[in-house]
Write a structure and sequence with these properties.
By secondary structure, the chain is an alpha/beta fold. The chain has one domain (3-173, 180-197): DHBP synthase (Alpha-Beta Complex), CATH 3.90.870.10. The protein has 7 helices and 9 strands; from the N terminus they run H-H-E-E-H-E-H-H-E-E-H-E-H-E-E-E. The protein has helices at 3-8, 16-24, 46-56, 71-75, 85-91, 125-134, 159-164, and strands at 29-32, 37-40, 65-68, 96-100, 117-121, 138-142, 167-168, 183-187, 193-197. It has a 9-stranded mixed beta sheet with strand order 7-1-2-6-3-5-4-8-9. A hairpin with a 4-residue loop joins strand 1 and strand 2 (37-40). The protein starts with a helix and ends with a strand.
Length: 198
């Protein structure tokens, strides 16, 4: 099946049988996240990550966010998880992205210059199922060219983005509800939570 056919094929259920091969082969997808529509790929694939930076015309000093399906998955990719983090994640109502100081087992082009990485554990059923099927975290970045406003829903995504990803997920495209970016928090050396974006 060609890229064009994949992008226009109307799929049933959550169509993991189509998405996972795209991600495993280094492709990039356009998909609904627990916040806004995003562009994603296998977070362990350096070449796929490069494709996203190129498509968005995004500076390499602005790393992508990772989405994970559990705290257990997060622990595979960071040196340390603060013991209070589990409590914060359990009580926080909005999607919460956490900046961890020391990333590991990830491509260099995904990690910030200071070695940190931002990861969000998703509760959205589609995203959780997607990541679980892949068995690895996926990247997430807003579905826009850098410097342009992020799209609140699928209808606001530019044709430039839609036409240049390898697969467009065919769910929630008619949802007009406007999404918003997640809360971003960092844990300092004293164990205090510093909110970088509320």
């Amino acid at each position: 099946m060609t890229k064009a056919n994949l992008n226009t094929f109307m799929l049933e259920n959550d169509h993991m049988d189509f998405i996972i091969p795209v991600l495993n082969s280094g492709g990039i997808i356009l998909y609904p996240t627990d916040t806004i529509w995003g562009i994603g790929c296998d977070a362990t694939n350096e070449e796929a990550i490069e494709k996203i930076f190129k498509l968005k015309n995004r500076s390499k000093d602005k790393p992508l966010v990772l989405l994970a399906d559990s705290l257990e998955m997060v622990k595979k990719y960071v040196r340390e998880v603060h013991p209070r983090l589990d409590t914060l994640l359990g009580h926080h109502k909005r999607p919460l992205t956490v900046v961890y100081d020391e990333a590991r087992n990830l491509p260099a082009n995904l990690v910030a210059a200071n070695g940190s990485i931002a990861i969000r554990i998703v509760s959205d059923p589609f995203c959780k199922r997607l990541i679980s099927h892949l068995g690895r975290p996926i990247t997430s970045t807003s579905a826009n060219i850098s410097g342009q406003p992020f799209p609140g829903n699928f209808g606001e995504i530019s044709s430039e983005i839609i036409q240049n990803v390898d697969f467009v997920v065919k769910i929630r495209q008619n949802d007009k509800k406007s999404g918003a970016p997640s809360v971003v928090v960092k844990v300092n050396k004293d164990g205090d939570f510093i909110f970088l974006r509320k």
